[in-house]
Each structure stands twice: as C-alpha cells, then as structure tokens.
Amino acid sequence: MADTTIETETPKIAASRWPIRIFVALLLFSTLIPVEWYRNPRVRAQFYRAVFILGSTKLRHWSLDHLNDFQLSMEKDILADCYCFALSDEEKSIRNQAISGLPFLGRHRGISIRALSSRLTNSDSVVRHCVVKTLGYQGERAAPAVPMLIKLLTDPDVEIRFATLEALAGIGRGAVLAEPMLTKILLDPSRSWYCRAEAAKALGAIGPASAPAVPALIKCLKTRDSEFLPHGVEALGDIGPKAAAAVPALIEILITKPPIMIDTFDTIQYKWPMSPSKAKIAAIVALGKIGPAAAPAIPKLVAFLSNPWTGEATISALGKIGPNSTTIPILIPFLSHSDLDIRQRTILVLGTMGQSALPALLKARKNEDPAMRESSNKAITIIEAKGLSKELMPK
C-alpha cells in the first residue's frame, strides 16, 4: 500500500524562510509604488522602517544604514522611532548602531528618555558616551535621567565624566539634583580646570536653584585661575539676584589691572595692555544680571563706558541695575564727552532710569549735535512709554 503521508517542513527551516519571504514581498510592494511616491522622502523613510521592523538582522542593518540619511531631514520622527525600537533589539550590533546615531538627531521628543537611561550602565564606554550626549541634547525633558547621570560623574573614564557635565548643563533647570555634586567638583583641586569650568557652566544652567553653590564659586574666583575665571563669573550671573553675595568679588575682578602683552619682533620688544579680559566682560554682564543688589559696582562700571570692547555690555548692566542715587550724578558728565558714541550710550542708559533722569535728558535734547538730540528724544520716549514723566514734560 502506498504511503499517503505528506512530508512537511521542519519548524526551524520554515522559520528561516520567513525573512526571505518578507523581503521578497517588500520588493514586490516597492515595484508597485509610483515613482512620484518613492521620490517623497517620507515614503522612503516609512518603507525603510517597515523593512527594519519586519526584516532579518542583515535587513535591519541595511535599513538603518539608509535611515541614517534622514538625520538632517524632516523625517527625524521616523528615525527616532526606529532608533528607540532598536535599543531593545536582540542583536548587539544593531543596538550599538542605533546608539551611535542618536546624538546626531539632537533634541527630539520622539527619543525615549527611559530607553536611553537603561543604557547608562552599559559596560561599553562608547555606548555610555553616546547615550550621555543624547540625553544632554534633550534639555529639561531628560530630568528623570539626572540621578543616573550623577553616578557617572565618578566614572573611571574622563571623557564620560566630562560628557556628563556637558549633559547636565544641557538639561539645565531639570538637573537641580546634581547641584551638591557639581559644587563638590568645583572645590576639588584634583579636577582639571576645564572640568571645573564645565561644572560651573552646569550650575549656571540650573539657575537660581544653584544659590547654595555661590560661596564655592566665590572661593574659586579668588584663586585667579585665568582659564576658569570667565566660566565661574558667568555662572554667578546666570544664578541671578541670589548671587548678590558675589558682588564684592566681581568688583575686584573689574579693578584688577589687565596683563601686559609682550611681543618680540626683530629683537625689539613692544609692550601694550591687552583688551579687557573675558573675565572682566563676564563680570560686567553678571553684575547686570544680579540687578539692583549690584549698585555698589556702579562707580566701577561707569569707567567701562568709554571702552569699545565693553561699552554695550556696560549700558545693558547699568540699565538692569536700575535707577540709583549714585548712577545719575556719575553719568551726567558723560553727556558732554568728546566721543559721540559714549554720549549716545550714556543717553540710552539714562533712558532706562525713569523720572529722575529727565532733567539731564531734557538738557541733552537741546544740544547742537543732531545725533545727540535724536538719542535724547528716544530716551525720553522710553520714559514716556513707562508713564513716569507726563507731569514733568514741557507743554
């Protein structure tokens, strides 16, 4: 009697043919897509995503390679979705390919913070580095990852530690939990100046919540480390009015004499003072951000009005410090300065002082110089807009 049994494929062989069948089906489907559709980058991105989700390991690699071409396009949402999906892929090579591509997406809401955070403990330092950079790009949205990032501040790899400081600075106000550790790094003499500078930048990005770090920042300013100094000063300015205790230290930076630059040419030495240091310019900006509490610095700030490097920053700082009994008497002599730019800067500052500056502005409006008259009118217009001078304006 003939054997009527039907020979069937083993499950292993049948399963191995599924990726081939899917690939063939996708190829057939692609031939049905009109050329106009395929020229659309979003249609192509969707096609590669379908291949990635349904294909074999080689096809997933192939699709990710093509999806990488969309890093700078409007289809970042599709790429972010595939990258996050690939983070849980069973193949390590695909996981690593996705992790290395994530930083190029920059800030994108489609990137999963939870999925990235789970990779911060990876044994591969390259993976940790890419994940940390990606988290830093996400801003405050990455706040849930801060506790794990704090642990990486003691990572044995110096590049990981520095990337973590950059990430915390990128997260900004959401990284408030890191303030104690960042303060500790500031005071650690074994840390390089650029690590301490990045820690100061992170504290500044956190903002007013970093107020407990102000004493540590002031202590760092007294070391006169020329490389660190601008970064520490900027951090105090970013903390704002809560950094009022740093005003004396910032004034000290303003009055410090600039170094002398020595250049040798044909055995002849030429000496001349350098332009104001970055620390001085940063101190002027920081005093403005601190606001009215920086009033003791006004006499020192006025001296920088005549400097082309610091004039604009000084105007802004004096305006933010606001009206003060000391400010206007010091500024009035500058209305008759021989330099037109200095006179105009002074008028603009007085324009932010309100009613108390009106007598000086009304006098400046009668000046023979048309540019000065125009600036005076603009300053008076500013005061009028604030509703402070209607009763004092001449009829």
What is this structure's SSE topology?
Blueprint: H1 11-32, H2 35-38, H3 41-54, H4 57-67, H5 76-86, H6 92-101, H7 113-117, H8 125-137, H9 146-152, H10 158-171, H11 179-186, H12 193-206, H13 214-221, H14 229-239, H15 247-255, E1 260-265, E2 268-273, H16 278-290, H17 298-302, H18 311-321, H19 327-331, H20 340-351, H21 358-364, H22 370-385
Antiparallel strand pairs: 1-2
Helix pairs in contact: 3-4, 5-6, 6-8, 8-10, 9-10, 10-12, 11-12, 12-14, 13-14, 14-16, 15-16, 16-18, 18-20, 20-22, 21-22
Intertermini distance: 125 Å
β content, as a range?
A: under 5%
Instruction: For the largest sheet, list the strands in their spatial order.
Output: 1-2
Count the DSSP helices: 22
Descriptive account of the structure:
By secondary structure, the protein is mainly α. Helices cover 58% and strands 3% of the residues. It has helices at 11-32, 35-38, 41-54, 57-67, 76-86, 92-101, 113-117, 125-137, 146-152, 158-171, 179-186, 193-206, 214-221, 229-239, 247-255, 278-290, 298-302, 311-321, 327-331, 340-351, 358-364, 370-385, and strands at residues 260-265, 268-273. It has a two-stranded antiparallel sheet with strand order 1-2. β1 (260-265) and β2 form a beta hairpin. α3 packs antiparallel against α4 (57-67) and α5 (76-86) runs antiparallel to α6. Residues 1-15, 259-275 and 388-395 have low confidence and may be disordered.
